[in-house]
Amino acid sequence: MIKNPIPWPNGARCAVAFTWDVDADSAVHAARPDSADNHVATLSFMRYDPEIAVPRIIDLFRRYNIPLTFFVPGWTIENYPAAVDLMLKNSHEIAHHGYLHHDNNAMSRQQEMEVLWQGIEIITRVSGRRPLGYRTPMISSNGVSRHTIDLLIEQGFLYDTSLYGDDIPYVLHNDKGSVIEIPCIQGLGDWYHYMSWCDFGYSAAIKSPTHAADVFKAEFDAAWEYKGMWMCVWHPSVSGRLARCTAIEPLIKYMIEKGDVWFASMSEIALHVREVISSGTWRPRIDQVPYYASPAPDAAAKER
Ligand SMILES: [Zn+2]
Hints:
Blueprint: E1 14-21, H1 26-31, H2 40-62, E2 68-72, H3 74-79, H4 81-89, E3 93-96, H5 109-127, E4 133-134, H6 148-154, E5 159-160, E6 170-174, E7 177-181, H7 191-194, E8 196-197, E9 202-203, H8 209-225, E10 229-234, H9 236-239, H10 242-258, E11 261-263, H11 266-278, E12 286-288, H12 297-303
Parallel strand pairs: 1-2, 1-10, 1-11, 2-3, 4-5, 5-7, 6-12
Antiparallel strand pairs: 6-7, 8-9
The protein binds zinc ion.
């Protein structure tokens, strides 16, 4: 079903990346700029991220020697240095996730650019290396503006992982250059399975971890069958809770037992994709961006 599979290292059938968006309470401050300090329960829910879940997750994956990728807003890095130290000490990747979890669609190009610089500067300062990858903070509600990809290309990012346009990595290209897109799959986001919190406008029914793990496993089996990749978009404050975190270990074991899997960080995957492209071993699908210079004329007329 995948017409042009990527040749993964060592003949692996499938690349697997466990990625975590560590928002902490940055998202509360962004959503409630005038009253975040008064939303104590929501703050506590999100502070579970660095205080409880990040150490737990790092312990779990250390047992299997699997690299992780953490997308962390600059504000969170500044406010929770111990969690960030733990990520770095365990050689996990830290990638860009905005500054205060702002919505790119609500910002001007200049504001987006300033936030991008802020995150680059903070990650470079704490980790000693410039971030190679980016994921929009508002991953479950668009959050990618007409400027976002252009700015990532301008700033020389290696990869983005905010879009949904393919099953495997592809290339976003414009007149300034290109960036590798590692696309998301809705079913592999934990938000859709577990999130119910009225303060953020989510009140879905919560699934059992077994049900969610069935979806994660089905996506893995399909990726393995068709030589694709599997990348989850999980949040420590959501998937790092006891029962959900417990359900991750059988999934890891299942992947290992199935075999021919390349467990990698996102930058390792993007660097490999760049290498097979530049060596001529593999030709990517290329999306020209932006898709449109303006809204479709009919739609714009109706809106007026
Ligand atoms: Zn986020």
